[in-house]
Task: inverse folding
């Protein structure tokens, strides 16, 4: 019988669970992922450590299951929302991942409420930016760490980083992207020119 592997990465623990095709849990493993708070209102974690701890949880769950990994036919990853995980043009982490507990962009988001930016964002994306929204964190990095901002090639959520490490493919889904980056009416990325449009 085929196996299914689910991965869930929260703010402190990454978990791997093996299921059979009927959805019965066969084995579960958890590994802690350390948080760093290098400055007030900053909550981060090392992206490579996140992956190594996730890989360790996967290996433990597969071992505890007692069946070969070759029987796994599908893998799904989920993780905390908001925050930001950045890659450079070589698909390497561009600094630590920023968790949804991070509030460094709080003053910036408050300013957007006063100057009309938040209202414009709500009209476009259906979301009001807040301190841990990817849009607010990106703007904070642009304003406070322009060298890092200039090296960004890929903007990911936590689950997207895990999916990339599992599959070698960089991407996201519309649900994740819609929190900051897509038009609520069309689900397109407004900044990207679509084929056939000038």
Result:
């Amino acid at each position: 019988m085929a196996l299914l592997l689910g991965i869930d990465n929260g703010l402190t623990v990454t978990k791997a669970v093996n299921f059979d095709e009927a959805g019965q849990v066969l084995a579960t493993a958890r590994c802690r992922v350390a948080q760093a708070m290098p400055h007030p209102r900053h909550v981060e974690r090392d992206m490579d450590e996140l992956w190594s701890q996730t890989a360790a949880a996967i290996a433990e769950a597969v071992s505890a299951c007692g069946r070969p990994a070759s029987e796994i036919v599908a893998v799904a990853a989920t993780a905390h929302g908001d925050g930001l995980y950045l890659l450079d043009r070589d698909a390497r982490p561009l600094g630590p991942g920023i968790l949804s507990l991070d509030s460094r962009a709080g003053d910036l988001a408050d300013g957007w409420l006063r100057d009309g930016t938040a209202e414009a964002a709500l009209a476009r994306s259906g979301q009001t930016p807040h301190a841990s929204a990817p849009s607010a964190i990106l703007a904070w990095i642009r304003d406070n760490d322009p060298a890092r901002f200039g090296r960004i090639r890929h903007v990911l959520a936590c689950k997207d980083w895990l999916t990339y490490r599992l599959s070698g493919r960089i991407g996201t889904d519309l649900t994740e992207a819609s929190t900051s980056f897509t038009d609520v009416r069309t689900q397109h990325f407004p900044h990207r020119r679509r084929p056939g449009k000038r």
In short: The chain has a mean pLDDT of 90. Residues 157 and 177 are 9 Å apart (CA to CA).
